[in-house]
User: What shape does this take?
Amino acid sequence: MTRGGWTFGLAMLVIVLAGFLAPHVLKNPFYFFAGYVILQYVVIATGWNILGGYAGYINFGAAGFFGAGAYASAFLFNAFGIPLWGSLIAACVIGAGLGLLMGYLTLRIQGVYFAIATLGLVIILETIIHNIPALGGARGMVVYGPPPPGWAAGPPQYMFVLMLLIAVASVSLARWMQLSWVGRGLRAVRASEDAAECSGVPTLRLKLLACAVSGAVLAAAGAPYPFYTSFVEPVTAFSLIIGLNAIAMPLIGGTRSWQGPVIGALLLATTQQIATITISSELNILFVGVVLIAFVALAPNGLIGLVRRKGTEARL
Amino acid sequence: MITRRNFNRLAAAAASGLAMPAVLTGRAFGQDKPIRFGASISLTGALAGTKNGQIGYELWRDDVNAAGGLLGRPVELVLLDDQSTASNIPAIYSALVDVEKCDVLFGPYGASLTAPVMPFIKQRDLFMIGMFPLAGNDQAKHDKFFHSAAWGPNSGTDWARGFFDLAKSVGVKKLAILANDLEFSKNAAVGGAKVAEEYGMEIVFNQSYPPNTSDFSTILRNISAANPDAVFIGSYPADSTAIIHSVREIGVPDSVKLFGGAMIGPQYGSLLSSLGPELNGLVNCHLFSPEPTMQSAEIKSFFDRYVPRAEKEGVDPLGFYIPPFYYVAGQLAAAAITGAGSLDQAAMAQWLHANKVDTIVGPATFNEIGDWTTRRVLMVQIQNVEGNDLAQFREAGRQVIIDPPELKSGDLIHPYNKARAG
Assistant: This one.
C-alpha cells in the first residue's frame, strides 16, 4: 500500500472512531438527525460521481437507485423481518443489477440523450411502485424498525453511525476506483471514447462496471431511509430533488476526483440543513439556488478545480 | 466619612441585594417566558398550497396573547419550512424540540409528512395536534396524538362515507371509482370501495391514473360506457380542473346521480372562481361551508380577519378548507394546557381525552387514538353558481351542505346532469 493509502486508511479509521464517540460528546439528538441527511448526500454524490464524474456519463436517474434501495429494505424488513444490515446488502445487489440493466439499455447513447434515458428510469420505477399493492402503492409503507442495539444512544445516533459506515465504505470504494486501472480506463472513456476503444480499453465493460458500482452505492444510500423516516412513499423516494442534488454536489466540489463529491455534499447538504432551521422560508430555496449558480459560474470544475487552478497560477 | 472605595462597596452590596431575589427565584421569573409552540409547515414544494394554515396559527396566537396568554405566559410560534419533503421531517422536529426548546408540537400537513414524525413523538412521549393526516395515528396508536380535522373514527375507510350515504339514499346500484395515483386520493378510493361493497353497490369501473394526467376524455368515455349510477373521484387540484373541463366537453350519462366525492381543489377560492358555473352539481367533500347551519360569531370573526391577510399574502382568499383547523389546533392545545394547569404532556393528553372543547368549527371530543368521536366531513353540493365572481362563494346557498344530516342546509339536486344545468 502507498503512503497516501495508509494516510487515507488512517483518516477513515479516525472518522469512524469519531462517529462512534460522537453520541457520548454531543448530547443534542438534532446533530445526528441532520448529520444523517448530510452523510446520506455524501454517499449519493459519491455514487453518482463514479459514473457521472469518472466516466462523464451524466445520470439523472440517481433517485431511481435511491428509491429502489429504500423500497428493497422496507419490503424485506416488513415482509420477512430481514434486519437492516441484510436489507442493505440486498439493496446493493438490487442497485448493481439495476445499474447493469440500465447500462445495457442506455450506454449506446451519449450526452443529453443518455441523461434523458436515465431520467426515464426514475419514472418507470415510480410507476411500477405505484402499481404494486404489496409495496404500498401510492399510499406508501410504514416501517417501524426494531429498537437500536444497546451500544447506540438512541435511534438517530444509530442511524447516524450506520450512515457514516456506509459513507466511509463508499468513499473508499470511489477512491480505489479512481486510482486503479478502472479509474484510468474511465478517464480515457471520458476524454475520448473512440480513442480509448482504439487503444484497447474495454470501454463497454468498464462503463457497465461503473453503472453497477454507482447503482449499488446509490441504492445503499436509500436502504436505511425507511428506517430513518419510518415511512416510504414513491413521490419522496423517487424525488427529483435527490437526482438534482446528486448532480449539484459533485459539480460544486469537482467531478474529477473522489474528494470533489465529498466536499460538495458536505457544503451543500450542510447549507441546506442550516437554511432549513434558520432561514426556513421560501428564501432558503433561493439561497441554495444562488449558491449553486455562483459555483457553476465561478468554479466550473468545482472547488478542487478552482484550488488547483489557483495553485498553478501561483507557481507561474 | 464615606470614602469613594466604601461608597463603591456599598453600591455593589445594595445592587447585589436588589438583584438577589431575581437570582434566587429564577424559576418564578422563568415562568414569564413564552410558551413555545413548534410546527413544520409546507411553505415550499408540492404542498405549498397549504401554507395559508400559517395565518390560522398566527390569528390564534394573537387572540391568546390578547387575552393574557396561557398559564399567565405569552404564546410564541416557531414555524419551520419542511419543503413538503418527508425526509426533512425527523430533523425538523428534533430541531423544534432539542434546539428551539418548544413546549408543544403541531404536526406537519397530511399523512405522508406526519408518518415520519410519529415514531419520534412516541419515543419521546410527546403531545401533538395532527394537521389533516387521514388515519394518521391508526398504526402508531400514540395516546398523546389528537386530530385538528374532524375526520372521525376509522377515517381510513369512513371519512368519505357521507358520499355513499347519499348514493344509497338516491338508489345508486352501480358505482365508478376514479383516483389519482397519490396517497390521499388512493386512500379515498380504497376506503370508498370498501364502503360501496358494504352497501351492496356494484363497482363497474375502478381505475387510477398517473398524477400528471391532464386529458380525461378517454377515461370519461370509458366511465360512460360502464353506465354507472354514481362516480366517486379522488383527485388533486390540477386533475380536478381537468376532469371538470372534460365533463363539460364529453358529458356524463343521465344515469349518473352523484359525481364527485373526494376531489381536492373545489375547496379553494382560485379553483372555485376559475371554474365558476362548471362546478354546479358537483357533490364533494369539505370541512367548512358558510351555510347557516355552520355559522357562528367566532367563525365569522375568524374569516373577517383571515380574508384581508390572505389577500395581502397572496394565498387562498376563501380559506374555508385549511386555516380554520390550524386555529382549531391552537384551541385544542390551549384547552389542554389550561385544563391540565401545566405543560405536562401526559396531563394535557389525559384532559383532552376526558373533556369536550368548544372550537370555532364546533365542539370536539376525542377517542383513545385522538380521532374526533364524530365524523364531521361535509358533503356539499355546488349549486346556483353564476359567473366567476369569488364573492358569491362567501354567501350561503352556493356550497350547500347535504350531509351530515345534523348540518344539512339544503336538498340534493339529482341526477348530476340536471344539477349541472343549474
